[in-house]
Design brief:
Distance between the termini: 24 Å
Largest sheet: 6 strands, mixed, barrel
């Protein structure tokens, strides 16, 4: 019998044993192939080219990260799977096969697994390509027909990447065979001779270290001495490694300490099957601490990535709407251009003119002497777009939403319109309003001093054309107008502004200029909104893929570790069954043994991610509550499913006589 036939027979007869590893491979192929297929999708390339956004650069950078974690995921799964079969490899050696021949059997098995995984993953990816494309376009809020995609480039890239992974995992299999002699291969992993008792002192140090890192992570970067420009990088490294070290101290010393105390508490120890669970946990803690730390960190990373990007997406989309209140704005349009714009709107089948307004805006430079050493003064505005109180009231009333009428302004008073006001911290707003501004206008020798008395959380102009709007007294405005050249703004409000692609292009052709938000002649709600939604939508989509990879890696670490231990624990459970323990009782014991491995890292991971999200809220003033709750709930549900599958498989392995 040839070595390839031995490998083929082994895979065929023990397919159940290989199925979980094969499932991990198929999931990895599916994730990578789907992501790379989107990078080669012509529709996505056309969208990014239209708005001059670097699509392929974003996808390329993300694909490198996904390759690294997919490789880690597959390597870790392969390593645990091969180690769980050490007795089988030892049997080959006992039957007279040389180590090189055993290594070739492992390679052939790996080759069959990878071929089946690549073929299955690509076919599934092609089948679901329409769904993934529709999901991406939905996140980008674009109505684009999508179909099944078939990219030879994506297929070639997938085969190449997993060919490299096949070589690496096979080399690792060779290393395991050559590293151990026949006797070592037959041995189970050596259980700890002296069970860990833990340490309350080191546990407290771990809690304090994590607490201090949480404290640093939730401080405002602008106000904390720990986050100055000179210490920012080192503070970030300290928080990262401090949380990891604190987590390891907790898992290495607090958990064994609690188990040891439960062991000493005889009323608990001898109740039901606790004697089995506590004993098993006592003799597994040292080896488990590092793995549980990795699971907790991966869980925190997964939740933080998904929570951050989903919160970022939600808030940026909201900002895109609030910062573009007008369907169209044009600068210095002639009467001929206005008539052509009217005609384009009349000819549109999906849009109709609601109103047309105009206003003159004056640009003012701030000439205050700013002390750069004073942080809040350095945050003050350097330039304003100035409009009159009456123009503001007229335009704001037309918009309707969030309209606040200004009844009176003294000559030296002003109101600042900030669509980002909801995201600003109190120190910055205080800096805006604390001291008066001295304003200078072009070709105007006189300077004007005004003080901001209030900040409104909306604006009346699209901010890519008119930003930092300052509303001033009408008399002051007229005085400025007599000596200063204005920027004349025309506003065209239309219906269905989010479905105005054809009209968008026609108006752009009328006013001319470069593409979209680099166009000084025109500002469009449709273009600005969809450029932003496309960019942040792609970032969210990439984050979702990375989250899936991280979650798969987390699950594989737990699953294969538990299954490896199930192989070693099978003789112990065989004795217990001979003593009369039913399969239901075995399952109950297994469930209690496995539960801490899932529950403790999950709690720590959620805790770490919440601290990171609080820090995000404090520094960016983003609303993160709903996205974080949804992502955490979904992640926990999938973790529970992983737990149930692991308990079921573990139970079958220790109760099956085969």
């Amino acid at each position: 019998m040839t070595l390839f036939k031995i490998a083929f027979t082994n895979v065929r007869k023990n397919f159940g044993q290989f199925s979980m590893y094969l499932g991990s491979l198929i999931l990895s192929v599916l994730i990578y192939f789907t992501f790379v297929s989107l990078a080669y999708n012509k529709s996505i390339g056309t969208i990014f080219k239209k708005w001059e956004l670097g699509a392929y650069g974003v996808f390329l950078a993300a694909s490198i990260v996904i390759i690294l974690f997919v490789a880690f995921f597959v390597f870790y799964s392969s390593n645990y799977f091969t180690r769980s079969r050490k007795r089988e490899l030892g049997l080959y050696s006992l039957l007279g096969l040389r180590k090189g021949q055993i290594g070739r059997i492992i390679f052939y098995e790996n080759l069959m697994m990878h071929v089946m995984a690549v073929v299955s993953g690509i076919l599934i990816g092609i089948f679901f390509s329409k769904f993934f494309s529709m999901l991406l376009f939905r996140i980008m809020d674009l109505s684009i027909p999508s179909g099944f995609t078939f990219s030879w480039s994506a297929i070639g890239s997938t085969i190449f990447v997993f060919g490299i992974i096949l070589i690496v995992t096979s080399a690792n299999g060779y290393w395991i065979v050559y590293r151990h002699n026949m006797i070592e291969l037959f041995k189970a992993d050596v259980r700890e001779k002296n069970p860990a008792k833990g340490s309350l002192t080191l546990s407290i140090i771990g809690v304090l270290l994590i607490g201090f890192c949480y404290f640093l992570a939730t401080r405002s970067v602008e106000n904390s001495m720990f986050w100055s420009s000179n210490t920012f990088f080192w503070s970030m490294l300290f928080v990262l490694f401090g949380v990891i070290l604190g987590t390891w101290l907790l898992l290495r010393f607090l958990f064994p300490y609690v188990i040891y105390k439960l062991f000493l508490r005889k009323s608990f120890f001898y109740r039901g099957t606790n004697i089995l669970t506590v004993t098993w946990l006592r003799y597994r803690m040292k080896k488990t601490a590092g793995t549980l730390t990795m699971i907790a960190v991966l869980s925190a990373t997964t939740l933080t990535i998904i929570g951050t990007l989903s919160s970022f997406y939600t808030n940026i989309i909201s900002f895109a709407e609030s910062s573009n209140p007008n369907s169209y704005q044009t600068s210095w349009s002639t009467q001929t251009e206005r008539n052509e714009i009217y005609a384009a709107i009349r000819d549109s089948k999906t849009n109709a003119l609601v109103y047309h307004e105009a206003a003159d805006v004056y640009t003012a430079d701030v000439i205050d002497e700013v002390d750069e050493s004073n942080s809040y003064l350095a945050q003050r505005m350097a330039r304003f777009s100035v409009i009159s109180m009456s123009d503001y009231n007229r335009l704001a009333q037309k918009l309707g939403d969030n309209w606040k009428q200004i009844k009176h302004l003294d000559r030296n008073q002003a109101i600042f319109l900030s669509p980002t006001d909801a995201f600003e911290n109190s120190n910055r707003k205080h800096a805006w309003m604390k001291d008066p501004y001295k304003l200078a206008f072009k070709n105007n020798s006189r300077h004007y001093k005004v003080k901001i008395t209030d900040v409104y959380d909306h604006t009346i102009f699209n901010t890519d054309m008119v930003s930092s709007v300052l509303v001033v007294n009408d008399a002051l405005y007229k005085e400025v107008a007599q000596k200063t050249m204005p920027n004349h703004i025309d506003i065209f409000q239309v219906t269905n502004e989010d479905k105005a692609e054809a009209l968008d292009q026609k108006i752009k052709n009328v006013v001319g200029g470069s593409n979209y938000w680099w166009n000084k002649n025109m500002s469009s709600f449709y273009s600005n909104y969809h450029m932003i939604s496309t960019l942040v939508g792609v970032l969210l989509y990439i984050g979702m893929f990375m989250g899936i990879v991280f979650f798969a890696a987390t699950g594989s670490i737990i699953y294969f570790k538990q299954i490896t231990e199930a192989v070693d624990e099978k003789p112990r459970f065989a004795v217990l069954q001979k003593m009369g323990m039913s399969e239901k009782e075995v399952r109950r014991v297994v469930a209690k043994q496995v539960l801490p491995v899932f529950l403790i890292p999950l709690i720590l991971g959620i805790s770490h991610s919440i601290a990171a999200m609080i820090g995000l809220t404090v520094n960016l003033m983003y609303s993160v509550g709903v996205p974080v709750m949804i992502s955490t709930t979904v992640y926990t549900l999938f973790f529970i499913i992983y737990y149930l599958v692991c308990v079921s498989t573990y139970t079958k392995m220790v109760t099956n006589e085969d």
